[in-house]
Task: structure prediction
Amino acid sequence: MRQTNAANLAPDKPERGRQGAKGERTRQRIKAAFADLLGVKSFTSVTIADICRTSDITVGGFYFHFASQEALLDEVMGEYLEALVGDFDAALEGDERGDLAAAVCGAFLKAYSERIGLARTFQQLTRMRTDYALRWRLASEVEMGKLAARLRTERPDLAPDRARFLAYGLVTMIISRLDLVYVYRDRSGRTGSTPREVLARELAGLWKRMAAGQDPA
Amino acid sequence: MTDQPTTTTEPMLKGARRQRRGERTRLKIKQALISQLNEQDYFDLTITDICRVAQVATGGFYFHYAKKADLLDEVIREHSAAFWAALDAALHYLDPYSALFHATTALVRAYRDAPGLVRCFNQLAMADRTYVDLWETAAANWVSRLVDMLKAAAKGDEAALNEANAYSLLSFVDLLLFKIYIERDPGLVDCAGGVDEVIENVAVLWHRALIGRSPPDGRLTFATQNKGV
Result:
């Protein structure tokens, strides 16, 4: 059952909607309304009626632009992923002498804090559906390789596969921490109330400790 | 009069036997769920599937459980109790690296033993607060004892040795092992090495993040073979 979803996600269906400027504006309005709704509701409980009410269009108007809610979700998640991976890539391509830890942590923190609803939905989907786990894997694989190469310039002692392992470890550390703050929304206040600048400093600090290597003998 | 005892004990014996058989059936149903979750998604799994694998009649299932979710809930709570007991045992080691190493080992074992169940728990936790609470309460409790133990044992940089950090680092270890053993992300599995290497390297990262330095070289096996992080 779940696997059949993957086939539906492939954007090979002819795109719906008018190509003109007005059509494009409406399309953007629907996507923005959906993103807002995801900030307050779970993606499983948002309905097309909610989307139409929030974006002030008719149900017919919705279906003029999108074949289904799944198609809308697919497009919105695709754009979120593209932006996140783009920022991640920019952080890795940055100045060789620049602060790699702060740059990469900053890219993820930006995605989570500026697009909370989308970030939360994306993380939920990667955990609940294999097709979304695969999308993240494919989109991030190249960046993991680049990060591993950067880590080896700082730590030539690292074997190539262990540099990759460390790269996955560091990114997983960032995601696990941001998930606690933004996705699970820990109600106990153990991690929830941290301001963004403090979070950025803590993440970069943890990164540096983990990437530091063995103490010189 | 003298025959009285035999007539009263007989139904009791019968009852005890029936109870034992009932427990065996219950156990078979639970084992069937755990093994079937390795093959199938929980949401696609039917009671008919579970009964087929358990070799139990559907009526037998309903004698023990009202619905599929009740069975899952019981299995999750039992596994969760065993899981945290294994993590508790790790805190009996007195030095930080041993404690983190054995905690990592306990996590890896739990994930390899019942990957389907762990995946299912993670799916549910994304949608159902009850299961998030189950994890959070136990995790916070364990983490606070870990921090006490580390503070007593470690003489390192204690800046990161607070409960919030330690709590989020447990989530880190959990997520990394999830990606290796449950999601089986090929990019990660290919560079991770065997299970002993994974345990050592994860424990080293955990140790560095919490205490601010690597464990002593003498304690490590793979780091000295150019297989460390």
The domain at 17-66 of chain A is CATH 1.10.10.60 (Arc Repressor Mutant, subunit A). Residues 69-93 of chain A form the longest helix (25 residues).
